[in-house]
Design a protein that fits this description.
about 300 residues, six-stranded mixed β-sheet, mainly beta, elongated, about 50% strand, 27 strands
Length: about 300
């Protein structure tokens, strides 16, 4: 599992409930949890149209059962071409447990990742509003959220769009959208050190380079092009002999994904020689984890395997 931090904002984690794990250590634990590792937070992944101009000067309000925190966005210096920051939230809720970060996506949307403390076993009423600098309401969302249990802990993770229906009672199940593109390669010296991976959807790409030190191999965070225009991560697994498997994972907003999307994966050795190349279009598997009434877009996922 790889979580990427861009600036001060937590931008992605393949399991969203772990993306802000550092905050869980400082807050009370849910009464419904059997393990002290449980944190009593509901997570929201919020999408807004309009990019930076929509965010500047606007106010985000997060409420649970009528108690609210609100604040404006504070931008941090761009990191690897991603712009983002966090909201300066104040109000009745704990400022430690109530948190919202944001970044601008390549598709022009703003994505806000927020967590709000749970107050009861299930059925908390959450209100989320965003009003822009001109006073126009870009998002007004209200929902009673039913949590579910995983490993003895209450879990609630909800995606929110301006088109998300309000006034419903829904479960808070989520799943990833995007694709995994996998290639098997023969590495000349049997080590992934220096191997390069480029993953693209159409012509928007991310590039990664592996660096191995003291028997540990990881991505070179300082390499040019690392974390480009996609929300991507890489993994690698030894097979047999000098053969390795490289899955590249691309997460994205399901609203911008559609059947026929083209993915390209290129793997090179340390000298730039191409070891594997994949170029395919996909048909996504679709699911509505909370039902079609609660989810305006399905979760969409595709896998390309050798």
């Amino acid at each position: 599992m790889i979580c990427l931090l861009r600036g001060d904002a937590v931008i992605r984690c393949r399991a969203r409930v772990l993306a802000l794990a550092v905050l869980l250590l400082a807050i009370p634990f849910a009464a419904g949890c059997a393990s002290p590792a449980c944190g009593q937070l509901a997570f929201f992944e919020i999408y807004l149209d309009g990019g930076r101009s929509a965010l500047d000067g606007g106010v985000l309000t997060l409420c649970v059962n009528g108690a609210c925190n609100a604040g404006k966005p504070v931008w941090t210096p761009p990191s690897n071409r991603w712009e983002g920051g966090q909201f300066a939230l104040t109000g009745e809720l704990s400022t430690t447990a109530t948190f919202a970060s944001f970044f601008l996506r390549p598709d022009g949307r703003a994505e806000i990742n927020a967590n709000v403390p749970l107050q009861q076993e299930s059925g908390d009423l959450f209100d989320i509003r965003f009003v822009d600098a001109q006073g126009a309401v870009a998002l007004d969302f209200s929902r009673n959220v039913l949590y579910h249990t995983e490993r003895g802990c209450l879990v609630g993770a909800t995606r929110v769009w301006p088109s998300s229906p309000s006034g419903l009672t829904c479960s808070a199940r989520t799943c990833e959208s995007g694709a995994t593109v996998t290639a098997d390669v023969m590495l000349p010296d049997g080590s992934p050190d220096g191997a390069g991976v480029e993953i693209c959807r159409y012509d928007v790409c991310d590039s990664f380079t592996k660096v191995c030190r003291d028997e540990f191999c990881g991505p070179n965070w300082s390499a040019p092009g690392f974390m480009g225009g996609l929300d991507a991560s890489m993994e690698d697994y030894p097979l047999d002999g000098n053969r390795w498997r490289f899955p590249a994972i691309v997460d994205d907003d399901p609203a911008v994904l559609s059947d026929g999307d083209r993915y390209r994966l290129t793997i090179t050795d340390r000298n730039g020689n191409i070891l594997a190349s994949v170029d395919e279009t996909v048909v996504y598997q679709q699911s509505y984890p909370n039902g079609t009434e609660c989810d305006p877009y399905p979760c969409r996922w595709a896998s390309i395997t050798p």
